[in-house]
């Protein structure tokens, strides 16, 4: 037996002739002291700068089988340098098995297949090579189960796009999963991957640097992706001593280190949640120090493998701050840098959400595990948001036989518990309402009665659920039935708060189509409506035919089959023109009734309804802080031009504008005063008020018809336009509409600018040029190659959720950034000029009050 106390107590044995290191087994064993006495050597390492806390490295040797022990002092009770401490029966010893277990002789085996998750930071250095880095990960995936990319949230969408493209090009036969974790601006990339590590669900974690597995020799790469189960950070780059930053020379023999820096592999059990650096040495040194603190051998990591292809050590030595650097803020575009410090940060939002949404219980009912897996991105996010998620799989016999009731599935990013139930036992009774008691019985077993139940639509087994729940004594949960075909596109629902879920069934959206004689356009619109996902919601479909509608248009209307609710057809007998055609096409029947107005040359994205539902729930039915009477609607169309400037049309790019103004999240949706007519939802109060406004306006009771209400906007020259008048109302009130703001102008509706009331017949090239100005790409149902990357296009939002109301940027009619207070003040000033009203308006949505008609019985 070797006796060796002060030198590193770790050796490895390797068989000659094996080419691939990963195939070897490492024998990690200890050097044993000869007697019962423990020998401990302590060294104070005080040489690293003046302000550095002294670090203690303890090296201990013992026999296997010795009594477990812990050293009888802690951080507050430090030993003296150079003293040898011995263990005697008289000294106070606390028994604790952990430290010794790690020290016991052990044999390292290869880790289980697919039990490794790689964490890859994306930095400004690496983004240009990201495709290469990701394809090399896919090609040499080893035991990898998942790759988590960690990147600043301003480039989230670009990174997602790159990853999606690579996955599509490369394919992932072994179902390597990819997911993204955004981090706050200015956050250290090391800190960010450390944080992401706490969400890993596999037993092993591979911390990569921003180069991933590229620039690495084959053997080292093999060690990292087919690692041995060594209970310590293991990688090619390590520092022997904290005293003098001396890098360990790469070698085939494992060497003990004070700490290692990425890339390295560690067991999940060693991951520390968001460890903040506690010393100047930086996060990896601190990490190694933490690990070694729990070990009697003082080892913080193991160095193995050749790392000849990079000059990391040189960098480390020449720049002590290297491993502590803050990643420069990424900027893929040419715009100036976005500042690192910001107002209303990501964590601010999260705190607001966390406070308001602690409580919430969900019940998910699915027939099979597979259905639940498809829905798991939603379930996982709800769970991560602190909600209680209960799952019942009520499939048939196959669940009953050998599987226990209470089970767990590890799905992308989370562990979900589920209960199973065989319907065989209850099937005979299921036809009757009382048969539904199996759901009630299960609900009764839950710790909390759920506020929200989500289930698959059209399931015979659940047919009586609504009735049963209505009759039950407890508070009635909100019931949501989602069709199987829409299940894969639900990821956005994970961003909703419980309050929003509870109101799921409250808002009703009416679709109102205005058409005349463009059957080709109409057919395209109807087909895009048919392909859209409605997530089980009922919607009234209304089509308004002008008096001059042609027979082909009529035929299309008769043929059209609307599967999501009732269909209403209007036909005018007196030609009205576009203004009444639009304005009278829809009227709210309650305060929960919303009108989606669509002219026939519009085409919709299949995801448009998700956007509508998500935004309406957030800003109309969510938490009080997110609601405002100033919001009059939701646009599906993304602005690409500003029409209202007196100088004429100007191109517009919200993202570029927000970059220019150093807004923290250039990808945020925003508020604009401009009413959109190319696919937008109008809110009931505001639409009613608009009707009243038009009546007063056309009566010329308050001002003459050719009065310019809004100063200096081009719409004053428009004739017969409903938007002109809506703009007036918006201006006087300081209202605004919510607009999407996705990369590359990806939109939920587009306009094909076809010859019609607005668009006059023009020479073809001029026409095509104009058309190009307005045609936008539609958000698609993403390919489902890798589900975690799919259907999240709509979640390309700050923190992957709709921002709080107060942090939405506000734009005026000519596209300049402003604030609501400025807009409201400006409207009131104008109102006073026009009407000499004594005070500000006092009644919401009341046009007589707005025009102070009661106050001035004799119109001016
Ligand atoms: C640092 O450590 C290396 C190797 O352990 C040694 O060769 C070198 O002399 C040390 N430098 C100082 C300044 O102690
Ligand atoms: C390392 O980071 C910590 C926290 O971010 C900071 O306080 C410390 O000054 C940094 N050390 C160096 C050497 O840059
Ligand atoms: C941050 O926002 C608050 C209110 O939204 C404001 O009062 C404060 O001045 C802002 N701070 C900075 C630094 O802009
Ligand atoms: C609908 O909203 C208007 C305006 O806020 C309000 O006056 C009216 O009472 C509401 N109607 C119902 C049924 O709540
Ligand atoms: C951004 O700022 C630059 C320089 O100030 C300006 O030329 C450019 O037009 C701005 N872009 C937008 C979209 O505002
Ligand atoms: C992906 O979509 C195709 C049809 O587009 C479907 O057949 C397949 O089952 C889907 N795969 C997953 C994993 O959802
Ligand atoms: C919008 O704001 C800009 C800058 O403050 C201003 O010049 C412009 O007149 C405003 N537009 C309207 C319609 O008020």
From TrEMBL:
The lineage of its organism: Eukaryota, Fungi, Dikarya, Basidiomycota, Agaricomycotina. Keywords: Membrane, Transmembrane, Transmembrane helix. It comes from Piloderma croceum (strain F 1598). The chain crosses the membrane at residues 26-45. This is Glycosyltransferase family 2 protein. InterPro entries: Nucleotide-diphossugar_trans (IPR029044).
